[in-house]
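The following block was generated as part of the benchmark described in Methods. Ligand: zinc ion.
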Amino acid sequence: MKYAIGVDLGGTSIKIGLVSEDGKIVKKIFVDTEASGGPRKVICNIKNGVHQLLSEINLPIQGIGIGCPGVVNPQKGIVENPPNFYNWKKVNVGRPLSMEFEKDVFVENDANAAAIGELIFGNGKKYHSFVMVTLGTGVGGGIIIKRKLYHGDFSAAGEIGHITIDHNGPKCNCGSFGCIEAYAGSNYLRKRVWDGLKQHPRSLINKLIEKNYDHLTPRKIKEAADKGDKFAISIIEDLGVKLGAAFASVSNLIDVSTYIVGGGVAGFGKPLFNSIQKTFSSRVLKSLQPRVKVVAAQLKNEAGIKGASALVFNET
Ligand SMILES: [Zn+2]
């Protein structure tokens, strides 16, 4: 059996796991990112975490995979401007780690790592080509074409979250307007629901969150929808329409018909997936209509660690 280390580098914590080639996590640990300490501190914390894990589990590893936010140059292992990381412009994360552990190190954008994770371990196993979409605070994407990740000219491909669906729409974090992320990103979604609750004072959501914005999470919206709350259901269905419209545009452009959707907001489940599928099928060009498909990601909570380790197994 082969093993690899997967590192899920987030703004507040670094999740590190030792993963077998059949996709099982043998052991995992979490360490604080301490992003405010700057890049050197963060890299030092990754090194210490990996050392700790390897000292606890004495198994030979094939290499180390790292998934992180921001634009990544996978050839050089350079991570550019990850959001929520202090004093970080262009930093080579790959080299110091490959020198420390004398192993191959593969660095990818986190949504791309999630796509490779589904390709190697998850629901992507049975598809030649698909688009991975991660619905969380941000909306990320990764494009797999003929079982290879498509990077684009500057390694920035797959940013499905910044496809404009309304050029007069709300302002997005990226500076543009009416991007998918400005509707589906969890904070934008919460804000929209919060504003909408004023017109729907009797919605069950109000009761569940006790009129406290901090309690307004995608999970609470789902809970209300599951109990038949019309406003909650309408929010989820509307989100599906928006995503379905974006998927149809992407599909028309690149003729990839399978979309694998994961991340916290995908936890809305069936009502969301049915709504995406309905809009997607009806809006894509006719010749593609019978083929388009939306499926849930298979890797759930551990998608970060598993996706990062899959970067190693994908190469070795
Ligand atoms: Zn945007």
